[in-house]
Amino acid sequence: MSTDPRAGEAGQYVDSEILQDLLSIRSSIDNIDAALVHLLAERFKATQRVGVLKAKHRLPPADPGREKAQIARLKQLAQDAQLDPDFAEKFLNFIIEEVIRHHQAISETSGGEPDPNAPFDWADHQ
Amino acid sequence: MSTDPRAGEAGQYVDSEILQDLLSIRSSIDNIDAALVHLLAERFKATQRVGVLKAKHRLPPADPGREKAQIARLKQLAQDAQLDPDFAEKFLNFIIEEVIRHHQAISETSGGEPDPNAPFDWADHQ
Hints:
Two copies of one chain form a homodimer. Chain A has 126 residues and is mostly helical.
């Protein structure tokens, strides 16, 4: 029913009005995704700075108190924004896994070995 | 060295100046996380609308062409923003999994069974 390339497969199944609704929502999703990617890039720049700071000063890395506070705060924010709080927690954990991977790379590159007396493992995401 | 509650464990290990640097970066991370949560909430509102639209019009759900374009676009955006493009792809897939879960719930709630002639499974994330 449509040859609009933005329609994807949906163009074969619906009339023009419904398709316009769909394309309009998809366009919003694309805008949001662009914003998410840029914010994530900025977040990794920030955690990169934390990683360098900690490697330089041989700081103990993970901070359970900070992490707990972050999760509680994000879950509350999610609830206020009508986002599933459990998903917000899963999302934070997903990001943290990536940050840990980055920080391991920083630690290896800088040749900074973890302080054996440090109480936690050498990965900071905070 | 610090009793600032925001310092977490780090307060025990570094002097005040370094701690201030750390707290400043953490504060930026917290701001970014709040923005991410709100954008994610908005994204799920948009995909919820897509889910309802598709359930209502018994549209085929997943759209491989659209998905491929989304991934290529996000990877390019990530590259421009100096974010690992593979991470951007992983991130999109992580979100899509959650959207699929939501859409299955919509489909079950609305009693709308997938059209057996639809070429894809009943989960739209686009």
